[in-house]
Each structure stands twice: as structure tokens, then as C-alpha cells.
Description:
Strand content: 5-15%
Distance between the termini: 18 Å
Number of helices: 3
Bound molecules: iron/sulfur cluster
Shape: elongated
Strand order of the largest sheet: 1-4
Structural class: alpha+beta
Amino acid sequence: MSYQTHTLKLEIAECTGCGQCLEVCPHAVFGREAQSKRVKLLHAERCMECGACMRNCAFGAVQVETGVGCAAALISGALNGTAPQCGCSGKKTGCC
Ligand code: SF4
Ligand code: SF4
């Protein structure tokens, strides 16, 4: 499944290469530049606008307009009649 976003923006000049966005993104949107060690948008089409990267970037390098939240969690909750949950519990993703 792929997700399309039109609001995710990465300001590479502000990126320190700390790697937090690599840790928290539940869809591996970011990748590491080989030379600079800063990040790049490797799979922007996977972004579901959960906002975890923006919340965890201490340098303001990532901006995204958060949408409905974790789409996988919302769908799972609707199908199962439970609270939204995508299974990321225990990880520091903050996606739902
Ligand atoms: S969290 Fe921010 S500063 Fe750290 S690697 Fe990601 S974009 Fe760069
Ligand atoms: S908004 Fe969520 S899915 Fe999109 S890049 Fe950031 S952490 Fe990944």
C-alpha cells in the first residue's frame, strides 16, 4: 500500500543528521545521504502525514500538515470495532 502526500517538506539545510526521523517514521520515508549523512526523502509517496517526524525533529527540518492521523489504525479500529491501533505500540513512532 502506498500513501501520497503533498505536504511533507524536508529542509535539508536545517538537518543535522541526528537520525530521529529515521527512527520514528513508521513507513521508512527517509533515507540517509551517503556523503553528508543528512537525510533525504527516499519514499515520500509512503507518507501518511502522521506528523511523528516533525514532532521528533528538534531542528525544525521537517514540516508536514498532519491529516487524519494513522490511516492504518483508523481502518483497523473501524473494522474491529476497537480503538484505533496500528500495532506500533511500544515503539517511539507516535503515529497513533
Ligand atoms: S530528525 Fe530532523 S535533524 Fe534529525 S535527521 Fe531527521 S530531519 Fe535531520
Ligand atoms: S509524517 Fe509520518 S509517515 Fe510521513 S514522513 Fe513523517 S513520520 Fe513518516
